[in-house]
Amino acid sequence: MRLYGLIGYPLSHSFSAKYFAEKFELENISDADYQLFPLENISEVTSLIEHQPDLQGFNITIPYKVAILPYLDNISDASKSIGAVNCVKIERSVSGTILIGYNTDVYGFRESLEPAIKPFHSKALVLGTGGASKAVCYTLHELGIKYTMVSRTGNKESILNYSQLTEEIISDNLLIINTTPVGTFPEIDKCPDIPYQFLTKEHLLFDLIYNPAETKFLRLAREASATIFNGSKMLELQAEKSWEIWNG
Ligand code: NAP
Hints:
Bound molecules: NADP nicotinamide-adenine-dinucleotide phosphate
Largest sheet: 6 strands, mixed
Oligomer: single chain
Helix content: 25-40%
């Protein structure tokens, strides 16, 4: 049996476990399993790998995307730039075990955003400065899109505060990406504090949140005739990319 899984803590609801269970069933993959491995401390990852000899790879979620780095033998260029890993491939041989880290959020975001962007989406606002924001900024840089981060604690030209978002700034940045968890179920009546009244039909708003499918952020954008995308496709694509890495 080929074993894969997810490490993090706590691990109550997991999109990945459900996704892979459905994938294995749909694609008649009977020799693979995807399990949840809640680790109270990241140092437990070493014994997990030792005691699960069938484990060939795993995903990583909050709070270990950065903490996993010292345990890896090698990491992809994107993971190095971002400083976070959400997928690890385990290579076992007689000479030892090698762990290689990847960031598949980058792939998922790029593949879901790229088909939707038009030449005039050349400047972006990225709301939030956490782990997902770093993957988003890395991708925007790769796509040649200039971006400005927006943070609750921003106070300079490179990182703005929400209170600095004027009509001019909203008109100048036709791509706006929410990488904050604000608006996630059950707090669906919340949304990032941007001036939605200045959105137009040229705007493209991307929310990394996938539950609910339409957040208040996206609903207000849709009501202003902007184009909207949620994080579902990104989530599926990053899972598929992990599968490709483990089995490539
Ligand atoms: P994170 O590291 O905790 O970062 C979230 C950032 O959002 C924080 O750094 C913070 O930035 C901002 N923030 C947090 N609480 C806020 C609040 N109450 N009001 C305004 N801003 C707030 O989390 P993450 O790992 O980056 O994940 C962020 C979101 O992306 C989550 O909802 C996650 O589920 C989603 N995500 C989706 C996918 C996908 O495939 N669709 C992949 C990865 C992540 P400031 O302190 O600078 O304001």
